[in-house]
Structure to design on (381 residues):
């Protein structure tokens, strides 16, 4: 078994706080993909395209972009390896929700797992399949936890504001109205909170 | 046998070998909850997960003493999965039985012992799909919350500087979040 893959698997398991799974078994799963390095800027996946593979970013940096209403790409977040990219699209078969591009000033090392290999791993009732599913599960559990906390914080903020409006006197000073939130801002916020990084809570 | 029959009725386990479901039922304890009974408490120890095989569960997150409904769990779905797949963290939500419910208890040791069981593989795939849907749905709720905020009377600020999106995000995540 490739020692590099085993070490990468160990890092991935540690990064995502995966409770179960041996590096050797996860490395067996990763070996079903194709490993490669990318120098310079390259599009890994494009917004709106079918999800036909995922990327395990072992090293390097990837910019995640979404188009605004005018069709201009806007940077949503930056993902540093080790991390998973594009896995949710394979799970629910939805189109890409963003464009991912490797940075032109780094070398990205990736394992690409195509749809056929992904589906096979998902069904495998053995140590490799189990380790692979556990990696994905830990990643999504973290994303959901972060997202739920954000929902609570936002709603809590609204509850407090609504409560304050009911009880607080109207101030006499003239205040400047805040800029309205645009639809693009809403979409950007949702994309940020969808959690593109597998490394650490937001 | 009753438990195996209940498992066979769940769509997640359709077309799986009977022996696989029998092993799952044999290994995992079945528990019952009455309507409105708290199944898991936010902040509590995270040591088991539950596979709902009958009934309905509600998931809520409490902030500043106010519970906010997050999700409904139907038969065939799992709650508390973080206990199985991530290193121990406290429960981040409260789960309550919406009506009389029956669950299969899943412990970390069960996951290790069932690694060659196709029923567990099918269940884990189902959990992945469920988590993905919940993430996408929660993000939609965030967008809805923002739109409602936009529709409310404009809040005023004493700050004479333009309120950029970056400042607004900082205010949302740091100014409004209760620790």
């Amino acid at each position: 078994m490739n020692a590099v893959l085993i070490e990468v698997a160990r890092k991935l398991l540690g990064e995502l706080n995966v409770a179960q799974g041996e590096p050797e078994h996860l490395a067996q799963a990763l070996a079903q993909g194709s490993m490669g390095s990318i120098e310079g800027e390259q599009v890994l996946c494009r917004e709106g395209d079918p999800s036909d593979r995922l990327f395990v970013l072992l090293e390097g940096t990837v910019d995640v972009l979404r188009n605004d209403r005018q069709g201009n790409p806007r940077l949503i977040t930056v993902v540093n390896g080790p991390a998973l990219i594009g896995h949710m699209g394979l799970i629910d078969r939805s189109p890409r929700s963003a464009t991912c591009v490797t940075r032109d000033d780094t070398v990205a090392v990736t394992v690409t797992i195509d749809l056929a290999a992904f589906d096979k791993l998902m069904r495998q009732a053995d140590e490799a399949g189990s380790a692979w599913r556990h990696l994905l599960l830990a990643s999504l559990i973290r994303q959901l936890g972060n997202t739920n906390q954000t929902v609570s914080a936002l709603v809590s903020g609204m509850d407090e504001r609504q409560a304050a409006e009911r009880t607080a006197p109207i101030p006499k000073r003239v205040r400047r109205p805040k800029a309205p939130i645009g639809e693009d801002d809403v979409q950007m916020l949702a994309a940020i909170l969808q959690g593109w990084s597998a490394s650490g809570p937001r | 046998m009753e438990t195996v029959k209940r498992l066979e009725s769940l769509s997640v386990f359709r077309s799986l070998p009977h022996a696989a479901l029998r092993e799952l039922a044999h290994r995992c304890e079945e528990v019952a909850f009455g309507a409105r009974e708290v199944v898991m408490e936010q902040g509590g120890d995270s040591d088991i997960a539950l596979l709902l095989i009958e009934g309905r569960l509600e998931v809520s997150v409490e902030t500043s003493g106010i519970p906010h409904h997050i999700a409904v769990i139907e038969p065939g779905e799992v709650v508390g999965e973080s206990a199985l797949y991530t290193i121990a963290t406290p429960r981040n939500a409260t789960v309550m039985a919406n009506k009389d419910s029956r669950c299969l208890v899943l412990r970390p040791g069960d996951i290790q012992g069932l690694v060659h069981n196709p029923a567990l593989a099918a269940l884990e795939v189902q959990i992945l799909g469920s988590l993905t849907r919940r993430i996408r749905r929660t993000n939609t709720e965030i967008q809805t919350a923002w739109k409602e905020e936009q529709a409310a009377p404009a809040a005023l600020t004493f700050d004479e500087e333009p309120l950029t999106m970056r400042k607004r995000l900082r205010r949302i995540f740091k100014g409004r979040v209760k620790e």
User: Anything to note?
Assistant: Chain A touches chain B through 61 residues (CB under 8 Å).
